[in-house]
Amino acid sequence: MKTPEAGPLQRIEELAEDSGTTVRNIRVYQERGLLPPPVRRGRTAFYGPDHKRRLAQILRLLDRGYTFATIEELFIAERHGFTLTELLELEAVRPTRRST
Question: Each residue of 65-92: pLDDT tens digit?
């Protein structure tokens, strides 16, 4: 996701309400790296139009049954300019996880 573009900024509560999700879910998406951190102004965090678009994408993909891991792979592939065909030909775009 690009740097937040100019536009109306919202607090997390407003973003959650507009998007039909919860503040807790938004924080989980940030913790998992699916949603970038908000813009901070002093002690207050603000979310812009890019955050709202990315959140809508996450929610649509979750509604379709995609897992967090799959969504992460899709966003990584998008960021690197892969087409769907190229993505499917790759073994993995995520770093491999260490087994315990």
Answer: 999 999 999 999 888 898 877 877 766 5
Mean pLDDT of 38-55: 95
Neighbours of 21 (CB within 10 A): 18
Three-class secondary structure assignment of the chain: CCCCCCCCCECHHHHHHHHCCCHHHHHHHHHCCCCCCCEEECCEEEECHHHHHHHHHHHHHHHCCCCHHHHHHHHHHHHCCCCHHHHHHCCCCCCCCCCC
Taken in order 24, 72, 43, 48, the sign of the CA dihedral is negative
* Structural contact between residues 69 and 85, judged by C-beta atoms closer than 8 angstroms: no
The answer to whether 37 and 30 are in contact (CB under 8 A) is yes
pLDDT of 93 strictly over 90? no
The pTM score is 0.78
Kindly state the tokens that stand for 77. Answer: 């592939």
